[in-house]
Amino acid sequence: MSRSVLITGGNRGIGRALAEAFLAQGDKVAVTTRNGGAPEGALDIRCDITDGAAVDAAFAEIEQAHGPVEILVANAGITRDTLVLRMSDDDWDDVIATNLTGSFRVARRAAKGMLRLRRGRIIFISSVVGLLGSPGQVNYAASKSGLVGMARSLARELGSRSITANVVAPGFIETDMTDVLPEEQKKAYQTQIPLGRFGAVEDIASAVTWLASDGAGFVTGAVIPVDGGMGMGH
Fold this sequence. Notes:
The protein is of the alpha/beta class. Helices cover 45% and strands 16% of the residues. The protein has one domain: NAD(P)-binding Rossmann-like Domain (Rossmann fold). It has 8 helices and 7 strands; from the N terminus they run E-H-E-E-H-E-H-E-H-H-E-H-H-H-E. Helix 3 links the parallel strand 4 and strand 5. It holds the Pfam family adh_short_C2.
């Protein structure tokens, strides 16, 4: 059966690959972006997830077109990297507002429909940085680490209604963001990865679509590292 899927931040990189993977399975996919650019076949919703009213409006539009959201992938995120002594309050607040609070808002809204359906999948896209830490990314690491606690609390709170909540923690993935790194820096990062290479967006899509499948129906509160062994599950 075609399911109603929502992916936040689905216009490029990992988010776009996720949208394309669910579309290929025949699901009804909605994508939220700030500026448009969803993959062909997806419902393109303009939404700033830091705006609660915009989130409510986005869900109303999705529910009218596709029905209640059955699978939520909270992927939207930003960075404001700098060393802690140079990090401004705005640098901190902006990252937390998008990556952590924005994910909370969409999960809370999605849970309403899932509770009525008595089923659902909530999947947060975190990062190996949220588990290992990274210099210059205190705000980003805190936001991504927070998703783990959120998912595990939701898993306990919503599990009796057959709603799962899980986290995928990507490592270094080949995207537009990594393409611009100097070659020396790329090689330095690769030495930290046991598999000796960056991952592909399809690696993340494979993990997420599995968590959304019937085969993962008994998996909840889990953190799935897709990082080539960099974090060793931590």
